Amino acid sequence: MVDCGEGTQIQIRRSKLHFSKIQAVFISHLHGDHCFGLLGMISTFGMTGRTNPLHIYAPSMFEEYFNESVNLFCNNLDYEVVFHPIQTNKNKIVYEDRSLTIETIPLSHRIQCCGFLFREKPLAPHIKRDLIDFYKIPISQINNIKAGASWTTDEGEVIPNEKLTFPAEKPRSYAYCSDTRYMPNLHEMISGVTVLYHESTYANDSKERAKLYYHSTSQEAAKVAKDAKVRKLLLGHYSSRYPTEEILLDEAKSIFPNSYLTNEGMIIKVSNDD
């Protein structure tokens, strides 16, 4: 989960997602609409019989207050809550497993704030099973071939690796850029990502207001997407001054056509085929 504002538990229930599926929460910054739902959710998890640890990745300045709050309001949990302090001003990998890395994206907001970049790790190439059988290659050699090895037959013929395999799907990536001013160099950190979420609080007629309050216009979000050569841009964090967000979408599309408005409950496909 990325950010945890008020109403998070309601949205989880509406999505039919079981609470136990949430293993980690990444908090971009300490404004209420991004973190006020966290303690209540932790408490609810305790009442639903959770036993697996919950990992919280959040700005380091939050650690002392967070630990005190958990001790005060959630002191009888049957599961462990593990806090991982992050430095919001550094681009750094903060989580890694066999299939995924997550790194911080320093942003420019009124307080310490960062985004998060989720990257799938490259998969091994796929084996051409018919050729493996044809050349009578032992099962014990499959992993070597996936790792790039060629095969030499008993007659001395070298079968190149590219003949025995075909490439795996291109790894996907998702960049979440929370509240931030327009950053001219942001595209360098998120270059080529599959899907970019970038806040788009204002329309272009409020460009100076966006700068003053450390937010972005939808056109600025679109410029980041264009410069980064992403596949898809998701807009969000709209100002309530707009009765409809279509003006934000239209202005973004004028710069980056593959732009979309986000809304509660939407499911977005992260795909390199779009």
UniProtKB/TrEMBL annotation:
List required co-factors: Zn(2+)
EC number, UniProt record: 3.1.26.11
InterPro entries, per database record: RibonucZ/Hydroxyglut_hydro (IPR036866), RNase_Z/BN (IPR013471)
Record text on cofactor binding? Binds 2 Zn(2+) ions.
* Gene3D superfamilies, per database record: Ribonuclease Z/Hydroxyacylglutathione hydrolase-like (3.60.15.10)
Q: What keywords sit in the KW lines? A: Endonuclease, Hydrolase, Metal-binding, Nuclease, tRNA processing, Zinc
Which GO molecular-function terms appear in the entry?
Answer: 3'-tRNA processing endoribonuclease activity; zinc ion binding
Q: Which CDD domains match?
A: RNaseZ_ZiPD-like_MBL-fold
The residues the record assigns to binding Zn(2+) 2 are D33, H34, D179, H237
Catalytic reaction list: Endonucleolytic cleavage of RNA, removing extra 3' nucleotides from tRNA precursor, generating 3' termini of tRNAs. A 3'-hydroxy group is left at the tRNA terminus and a 5'-phosphoryl group is left at the trailer molecule
The reply to whether Zinc figures as a keyword in the UniProt entry is yes
A matching Pfam family: Anti-Pycsar_Apyc1
User: Active site: which residues?
Assistant: D33
List positions binding Zn(2+) 1. H29, H31, H109, D179
Complexes and interactors: Homodimer.
- So what family is this one in? Belongs to the RNase Z family.
PANTHER family for the chain? ZINC PHOSPHODIESTERASE ELAC PROTEIN 1
Task of the protein: Zinc phosphodiesterase, which displays some tRNA 3'-processing endonuclease activity. Probably involved in tRNA maturation, by removing a 3'-trailer from precursor tRNA.
Q: What is this protein called?
A: Ribonuclease Z
Origin species, per record, is Prevotella corporis
